[in-house]
Design brief:
Number of helices: 8
Number of strands: 9
Largest sheet: 4 strands, antiparallel
Shape: globular
Order of helices and strands: HHEEEHEHEHHHEEHEE
Strand order of the largest sheet: 7-1-8-9
Structural class: alpha/beta
CATH topology of the largest domain: Ribulose 1,5 Bisphosphate Carboxylase/Oxygenase
CATH architecture of the largest domain: 2-Layer Sandwich
CATH superfamily of the largest domain: Ribosomal protein L1/L10, rRNA-binding domain
Helix content: 25-40%
Radius of gyration: 19 Å
Length: about 230
C-alpha cells in the first residue's frame, strides 16, 4: 500500500489543483497521471444544481458515447418467442425467461438487463435484488422495449445509462486510459451535452456546478465547464 501511496502522491503532484482545465488538457492530464499496470477506466463526475428529492428535478437518461466505454458489457434479455430470437441475433450474451429463476438463486453475472414490457411483472418481484445494483430495466433508459435487438446493439456499441444520486452527482464511465485524447474528449463532450439537454425545467440557479475527470486509480482533474453551460 505504501508503494501505491507513493505513486498516487506522484500522480497528484502532476495536477495543478488551483486550475480548471480545458477539456483536451484535462484528458491529457488524466492520461499522464495514470499509473496502474492495467488499462484504467476514465470516469466523469458531474455535480448538478438540482434537488433529487423532488421528482421534477431528477436527472436521468442515456448517452451513446461516440467511441464506447472500452468495456464489453454482458447483456441479458428477458424475452420470449421471436423477441428472444432477435435478441440472440443482435448479440445478447444471455437470452430467455429461465434466467429469472437463476437470478432468484443469486446469479448476477451481467451488466445490463433488457426486457420486453410483458416480462416486467415477473421482473418486478426481483426488485430488491436488481434495484440496488442498478440492474432493473427501465423504459426511460430504453431497457424496457419491444425492439430488443436495437437495445442490445446500442448497449454493445457504448450506450451508457446515468442517474443523479441523492447528493446531486452523476457519475459515468467515458472510456479507457488507452483511448486517444481525441476519443476521450469526444466521449466527455457527448456525455456533458446529454446532461445539459436533460436539465429539468424545475432546476434553478447554476445547473452544471462542476465536473471532474479521473482514472480508476488516479487523481481528479477539474474541468472548465464554462463552455458547456
Amino acid at each position: 500500500m505504501a508503494k501505491q501511496g507513493k505513486k498516487f502522491r506522484a500522480a497528484v503532484a502532476t495536477i495543478d489543483a488551483s486550475r480548471v482545465y480545458p477539456l483536451a488538457d484535462a484528458v491529457q492530464a488524466v492520461k499522464a497521471a495514470a499509473f496502474a499496470k492495467f488499462d484504467e477506466s476514465v470516469d466523469v463526475a458531474v455535480n448538478l444544481g438540482v434537488d433529487p428529492r423532488h421528482a421534477d428535478q431528477v436527472v436521468r437518461g442515456t448517452c451513446a458515447l461516440p467511441h464506447g466505454t472500452g468495456k464489453t458489457l454482458r447483456v441479458l434479455v428477458i424475452a420470449q418467442g421471436d423477441r428472444a430470437k432477435e435478441a440472440e441475433a443482435a448479440g445478447a450474451d444471455f437470452v430467455g425467461t429461465e434466467y429469472l429463476a437463476k437470478i432468484k438463486e443469486g446469479w448476477l453475472d451481467i451488466d445490463v438487463i433488457v426486457a420486453t414490457p410483458d416480462m416486467m411483472g415477473q421482473l418486478g418481484a426481483l426488485g430488491r435484488v436488481l434495484g440496488p445494483r442498478g440492474l432493473m430495466p427501465n423504459p426511460k433508459a430504453g431497457t424496457v422495449t419491444l425492439d430488443v435487438a436495437k437495445a442490445v446493439k446500442e448497449i454493445k456499441a457504448g450506450k451508457i445509462e446515468f442517474r443523479v444520486d441523492k447528493t446531486g452527482n452523476v457519475h459515468a464511465p467515458v472510456g479507457k486510459v488507452s483511448f486517444t485524447v481525441e476519443q476521450l474528449s469526444e466521449n466527455v463532450q457527448a456525455f456533458l451535452d446529454t446532461i445539459i439537454r436533460a436539465k429539468p425545467q424545475a432546476a434553478k440557479g447554476t445547473y452544471l456546478k462542476s465536473a471532474t475527470v479521473s482514472s480508476t486509480m488516479g487523481p481528479g482533474v477539474v474541468l472548465d465547464t464554462a463552455g458547456f453551460r
